[in-house]
Amino acid sequence: MQDIFFYIFAALTLLCGALVIANPVSRNPVTSAMFLVLTILSLAGLFVLLHAFFLAAVQVLVYAGAVIVLFLFVIMLLDLKEEEQRRIKLVMGVLGVLSVGCIAWILIRTIQFVHPAGRLATVRLDGSARALGHLLFTDFALPFELVSLILLVAMIGAILLSKKDLR
Amino acid sequence: MNAVGLPHYLMVSALLFSLGLLGVIVRRNVLVIYMSLELMLNAGNLALVAVSRFNNNLNGQIMVFFIITVAAAEVAVGLALIVALYRRRQTTHVEDLTSLKL
Question: What is the value of pTM for the model shown?
Answer without folding.
Answer: 0.90
